[in-house]
Each structure stands twice: as C-alpha cells, then as structure tokens.
Amino acid sequence: MSNIKFIITVLLIGFINISYSQIPENNQIYQTYTTDSIPYHLLIIKNNKLIIEIPRKNDITFGSRTLFNIRTEKDTIFIINKLISDTKKEGIVILNSFTKHFVNTKIYKKSNNKLFFLNQNRPYFKKKLVGNLIGDNTIYYINGRLFKVPINSSKNQININKILKKPKRAKFKMLKGKQAYEKYGIIGLNGVIEISDRKRCYK
Fold first, then answer.
1. Residue-wise pLDDT tens digits, 151-180
2. pLDDT (mean) for 184-188
3. Which long-range contacts (CB under 8 A, 24 or more apart) does 47-56 make?
4. Across residues 37-62, what is the average pLDDT?
5. In the chain, what are the domains?
6. Phi first, then psi: what are they for 182, rounded to 5°?
C-alpha cells in the first residue's frame, strides 16, 4: 500500500493545474492540451485581435503575450500578421518558436465553445467550459470509473483498497496531451491517471 501511495504522490507532482485570474471575463478565452512542445497557453479573441498568452508559472503576472491582427469571415478566423503597435497597452509582443506557428494561418470556429487550429489539427475549448468540467481537480480513471480529486487539498487522496480488489497488482499509466484528449475528450485536457488491477490493463 505504501508503494501505491508513493506512486500516486509522484504522479501528482507536475500534474498541478495553475489558475490565472487577471484575464477579463468579457473576452473569448480558449485553451487546449499541453505537450513538451505545446506550453500551457490561452487564445484570447478581443475585437480584431488574437492574443496568445503563455502565463508565468506560480505568478499572477503575465509571462508572454503575442498579438496578431485577425479577420473573420463566417466561421473562419484568418490570422493576418503580428501586431506591434499596442505593446504598452497590451503587454510585451513576442514571436517565439511556438507562436510563430500561428503566423498567416486559420482558425475554424466549430461552435461557440470550440475552435480548431487548422494548421496543427488542434482543438481549443472555452476556458470557462473546461473549468466547469475539470475544475481544480486531478482526473483518475480507476477500473473503469472516473474520479475527480481536488488539487491542493487534504482530500487529495484516494483509498485504493476500497476501489481495487488486488492493489498490489495495480498498474499505473499517465496520459497527457493529445493522447489523453483523444481518449477522454475535454475531461482529459489536463491529463488522466489510469489505474487498474484487472488482468487486461489499459493500453
């Protein structure tokens, strides 16, 4: 049992969601999954601009913001060019190895809650929707059951013995990024910890 607690603790490190509270509510704010090459970032649509924001970790101040002019036709948002004239008002404009992929590209608005970045085949969902579905929780999938466990809480523990029949045989798997999203949908945007003690474990 101590081994299971240790593994759970290790998995939770680096699985902590960071909340960023200084973004105006009236803007359209979207987020997607993260990977080694895709940092946690937000797409903010404000008037005729697209802001790509990569917040600074463990800090409520902004990390970096890249601004683009956009043009909208029906359900397609055309990213025209980088905007550099509003740096004092909007923040520092940075075009880095990640944000350069947005230059002269298109974003398709599939619905009011979902955008699709065509060049990278990557979905974005309204931040508010993601917050409602996931919240400040770690997502577990244990023997076919989904569990939401609050982050940064004394309740952030799962009694494995009550869920698993043979805890010593349990296998753990951490799904992140696109893999977690494709398997679990929006609920998997921040990753999912899979645990099973069944003979046919998760693949």
1. 876 555 666 667 777 767 778 899 999 999
2. 95
3. 49/83, 49/86, 49/90, 50/77, 50/79, 50/102, 50/107, 51/90, 52/99, 52/102, 53/23, 54/98, 55/18, 55/20
4. 82
5. 2-15+135-196 (no CATH), 28-131 (2.40.128)
6. -65, -25
